[in-house]
Amino acid sequence: MKIFITGLPLEVGEDELTAVFGDFGQVKSLRIIKDRETGQSRGFGFVEMPNDEEAKEAIKRMNGGDYNGNRIKVAEAQEKPNTGGNAGGGFKRNNNRERSF
């Protein structure tokens, strides 16, 4: 089961969070989402636990709790809907311009 965590203190690292969730069972993977430019935590992340019962217990016991002074929310992660198209931006070329050389 994939778990979504929000409200994480910015100083919390992946090793520390892995140990916390490890108290409930095996942690298959864990990722704290970071800002692309600064590399600093954005305050949320994902944990994957192979045993659903252990994951549900972690959610039940940790959701709404205090973690280093922050109230965290812990829930089962929802899959992103696939919109089927390219939602990204990017460079748009204006081919209607006159060119002068």
Structure description:
The chain is α+β, with helices and mostly antiparallel strands and 101 residues long. The chain has one domain: 2-Layer Sandwich (Alpha-Beta Plaits), CATH 3.30.70. The protein has helices at residues 14-22, 52-62; strands at 2-6, 29-34, 41-48, 66-67, 70-71, 73-76. It has a four-stranded antiparallel beta sheet with strand order 2-3-1-6, covered by helices on one side. It is globular. The model has no long low-confidence stretch (mean pLDDT 87). GO terms for molecular function: RNA binding. Residues 74-101 are annotated as: Disordered. Keywords: RNA-binding. Residues 1-79 form the RRM domain.
In short:
Residues 74-101 are annotated as: Disordered. With 101 residues, the chain is an alpha+beta fold.
H/I helix tally: 2
Helix content: 10-25%
Percent of residues in beta strands? 25-35%
Strands of the widest sheet, in order across it, are 2-3-1-6
User: What's the level 1 CATH class?
Assistant: Alpha Beta
CATH architecture call: 2-Layer Sandwich
Q: What is CATH's topology name?
A: Alpha-Beta Plaits
Biggest β-sheet description: 4 strands, antiparallel
The rounded Rg comes to 20 Å
Mean pLDDT: 87
- Weakly predicted, low-confidence segments: none
CATH superfamily: RRM (RNA recognition motif) domain
GO molecular function: RNA binding
InterPro entries: Nucleotide-bd_a/b_plait_sf (IPR012677), RBD_domain_sf (IPR035979), RRM_dom (IPR000504), SLIRP/GR-RBP-like (IPR052462)
Region (Disordered): 74-101
Organism: Pedobacter nutrimenti
